[in-house]
Amino acid sequence: MRVVLATAAALIAFAANSLLCRAALGGGHADAASFTALRLASGAAILLAISRRSGGARGGSWTSAAALFIYAAAFSFAYFFLPAGVGALLLFGAVQVTMIGAGIAGGERPSPSVWAGLVLALGGLAHLSLRGSFMLSPGGTLLMLAAGAAWGVYSLRGRSAGPPVLATADNFRRAAPMAILVWFAAALAGAHHVTRAGAALAVASGAITSGLGYVAWYSALPHLTAARAAVLQLSVPVLAAAGGVLLLGEVLTARLVVAGVAILAGIALATRRSRPAPTPSPTPART
Q1: Which tens digit of pLDDT belongs to each residue from 82-92?
Q2: Angle between helices 254-271 and 235-247 (to 10 degrees)
Q3: Residue 249 burial (CB count, 10 A)
Q4: Cβ atoms < 10 Å from Cβ of 191
Q5: Angle at Cα 39 formed by Cα 37 and Cα 45, nearest 5°?
Q6: Which of 99, 114, 173, 277 has a 20 to 30 A CA-CA distance from 67?
């Protein structure tokens, strides 16, 4: 039950983070560099404050921190070039390839039900994301694929990290200066702006839905296979779309309902536990 609750909290936080990012960047309240820097810096601040009670941040690594920074920065910059739905499809497609590919390379062998659930869920995501004809931006596509691959690496490394709060705090502490350097470069080029509303959205994204959400995710990851952890994240676009309907006044469409049912059915199929084969009862010995 603890793993279920941690996983659910993490996925809800990821969806809420998407809404905060959409509100800040789509509403013109912040540029990508400022949003990313404030997001990672505020996440580092809250997590370092929490981790002090347990002896300070530790258990992270520069590799995980670099993956976290690449994900956060590429995710923000990619949405200048891509529609939200297409971006979600590219992001989570790259996450699936990265995590499931690494799991197979490490010896995992997903069952047929996992593969069937993955295909069903990805089909639902494609139905949700692809709205008519569109032209993909090569730059935006590469950025979002990089974001998905980086998030896959960050999640995979979290399966063997130290205590969740301490490891996440350490990763944020290392990643925040990278984002601040990018923000400083943008400021020198005069390509930055942030309003009070944008700053508030970025801080909420960093301190709550990123920082604390990633702690929940790191606490659940050691108990999930790479394939299941990858497929579960396909619920995030559905949760984000539902949040858009409830909180941002977006329209509930038949496309959303059909895609949501397909994604959730695929996740249920991929994560169900197979029953062990019954042990044959011993044949009584003949006398």
Answers
A1: 766 667 777 87
A2: 140
A3: 7
A4: 12
A5: 95
A6: 114
Is pLDDT at 35 greater than 90 in this prediction?
A: yes
R_g (Cα) of the chain, nearest Å: 20
- C-beta separation of 39 from 206 below 8 A: yes
* Nearest C-alpha neighbor of 209 from the set 4, 10, 76, 8: 10
Which amino acid type is present at position 242?
A: A
CB atoms within 10 A of CB 122: 19
- The whole-number average pLDDT for the span 43-59 is 85
Q: Which amino acid is at 96?
A: Q
Angle, CA 278 vertex, CA 273 and CA 282 arms, to 5°: 160
DSSP secondary structure string for all residues of 19-73: HHHHHHHHTTSB-HHHHHHHHHHHHHHHHHHHHGGGTSS-S--HHHHHHHHHHHH
Residue 283: band (very low, low, confident or very high) from pLDDT cuts 50, 70, 90: low
pLDDT in tens, 141-192: 889 889 989 999 998 888 877 788 898 899 999 999 999 999 999 888 877 7
d(CA 261, CA 258): 5
CB crowding 156-170: b at 16 or more within 10 Å, else e = bbbbebbbbbbbbbb
Q: How far apart are the first and last CA of the chain?
A: 50
